[in-house]
Amino acid sequence: MGVLNLTPDSFSDGGQYHVPEHALSRALEMIEQGAQIVDVGAESTRPGSTFISEEEELARLLPVLKHFPHERCILSVDTNKLRVQRVALECGAQLINDVMGGSDALFDMVAAHGAGVCVMHSSGSPEVMQLRTVYADVVEEVYAFLASRVERARAAGVPWVLCDPGLGFGKTLEQNLALMRATDRFAKLGDGVLIGASRKSWIGKLTGAPVQARLGGSLAAALQCARLGASVLRVHDVLETVQALAVEEALRL
Ligand code: HH2
Catalytic residue at 200? Predict the structure, then answer.
């Protein structure tokens, strides 16, 4: 899954793709590089980011959704607003990626479209989530949350349900590492686990690397999570990740 942020303020690629033509050529480039899903987002969810209106989110999304090359790749839309989710499905999105874990109304709508959903764990909205990093046992709490969301989505008839422990969404470095080590547990939920480790600040905390120099850490996390059974890797660097996975697979005994 290649990340396409149509935002001026995303933590690693903000401002690069807010012109629709640039965004669409980046989507095509990631497809050529081997992305099977492109995840389009129009609102930053980085820690401390602020909320934008539905109108603003749709104004950023629509020019890209209308011209998206659906025949070549799965379109995922990263949004947690119900109206935006509805419009995304009407524009042909096959996956709704909801960083707030989804709602019953979303699950009904997704089921009616025969699409999929990714339910992610976050400890709260982006404005406050890094203030909420207290868990008795982070893996158990996130697992219980995801299991209940997957059950609700399944009960609504959603045919494709991914879960995601939400790295960086209200978690400390140690908590992010514990969640990645537990990828094999999350992989058994629903139709598998999506991991979004790419370029995140935990890599910076571990290595001191600034955001534009976190490729090595991102690849190491992608390979290890893939080994532990992740079905989808949400990454900014598609070319490098696809290459690393191909080499790892060739070397596997
Ligand atoms: N991470 C980000 C956004 N959406 N969705 C899922 N399912 N999992 C993630 O880990 C995840 C996500 C944050 O990364 P990015 O989109 O690059 O940044 P921003 O939120 O600043 O736009």
Answer: yes
CB-CB neighbours of 50 under 10 Å? 10
Q: Is 199 assigned a catalytic role?
A: no
**Distance between the two ends of the chain, CA-based, in angstroms?**
26
User: What is the DSSP code string of 131-157?
Assistant: G----SSHHHHHHHHHHHHHHHHHHTT
Residue whose C-alpha is closest to residue 187's, from 223, 222, 225: 225
Distance from the CA of 253 to the center of ligand 1, in angstroms? 33
- List, for residues 48-72, the tens digit of each pLDDT value: 777 899 999 999 999 999 999 999 9
Per residue in 129-145, pLDDT (tens digit) is 777 889 999 999 999 99
- Ligand 1, atom 8: closest residue by C-alpha: 196
Determine the distance separating the centroid of ligand 1 and the alpha carbon of 196, expressed in angstroms: 7
d(CA 12, CA 84): 23
User: Rg of the chain's alpha carbons, rounded to an integer?
Assistant: 17
pLDDT of residue 128: 78
Test site for ligand 1: of 45, 127, 171, most ligand atoms within 8 A of the Cβ: 45
Please tell me what DSSP assigns to residue 193: B
